[in-house]
Amino acid sequence: MTIVDRRAGIRLPRALAALLATLALVVSSLVFVAPAQAITWGPKLCDGFAACAAKGYGNAGYQSVYKQSFWNMYGGHNCTNYVAYRMQKAGIPRFVRVGYGNAYQWGAEAKAAGLAVDKGTPRVGDVAWWDRAAIGGSGLGHVAYVEKVDVRAGTFTVSEDNYSSDFDWRVYRISEVSGFIRVAKPSLPASPIPTVSGSAVVGGTLTARPGTWAPTGVALTYRWLRNGAAISGATKSTYRVVTADAGTKVSVQVTGAKAGYTTTTRRSAAVSVPLLAMSAPVPTITGTLRVGSTLTANPGAWAPSGVVLTYQWLRAGQPIAGATARTYRLAAADKGKAISVRVTGKKANYATTARTSKATAAIR
């Protein structure tokens, strides 16, 4: 049986007509259905070293060395050199052989080196890896450094560098990677905030209470801080408060370390150490109570040594402008008024203290 092709007026055998129809469907599907691209290119959070830094997105120092080669990758702007730099900086042993530096090869190379590569939820510090298929079936793949993870949104944020482009930060979907190369160590499952107990006064002893860290075997170290800065030699679980702490805030930093886990540091709330009190006697005044005569303030013996004294003379209880020396020459304005002097002592770590003398009789 034959079929007539009405467009050309040609008679075709039924079997040949069926074959041509099938071929037409296949060609149609190839022409009109484009291959899907697996990766979603989200907007960049920043673009370029300077612009990213201005927004608070760092590059771990790569900006100053990006033209150098790390792990034998090509220097300059490209994804593999940047990630190799971050791995080297983190102390991760090289897992990519020489000659296998294209990004699409990193997954297989990492597996061959004994690292896990999977599509589970990433950790900060892991390497995000895309093979050729994920990028759209061509190119050399892509790798990036995981900076943040949003499990609820199903996304993660990376810092990355790009061939023929620039450094940037961008958000990707967790489900669209070819895999995460697991180089980041897990966090300790329990690392509580420490507390401080004891007597927060000069001469008193403070004790760090680290809480219960997990798993078992976490090694704890201590560092005491004064106003947030490390106190030299203060690395035990207890600390004796010294004079230099008076008037400051003291806290303790506890660091937990265990093989196979990320070393973790926690800091306690700060406790305030009160200022010390100085010995401050009431001053006296000597001299003739007559206009034109000179009066002298006798401050007495202040303690400890090193207290800096300042003076302010008073007329009827009010400060006399410019009268801030230990001596004061009586002026016409003082006639008929009572004169006194206020002495103020200052010293680091001590509470500033003022004492006022007894007022004189009326000046003649």
From TrEMBL:
Pfam families the record matches: CHAP
Residue ranges constituting the Peptidase C51 domain according to the UniProt record: 54-182
Annotated SUPFAM superfamilies: Cysteine proteinases (SSF54001)
UniProt signal peptide: none
PROSITE patterns the record matches: CHAP (PS50911)
Domain of life, source organism: Bacteria
The protein, known as: CHAP domain-containing protein
Species per Swiss-Prot/TrEMBL record: Microbacterium paludicola
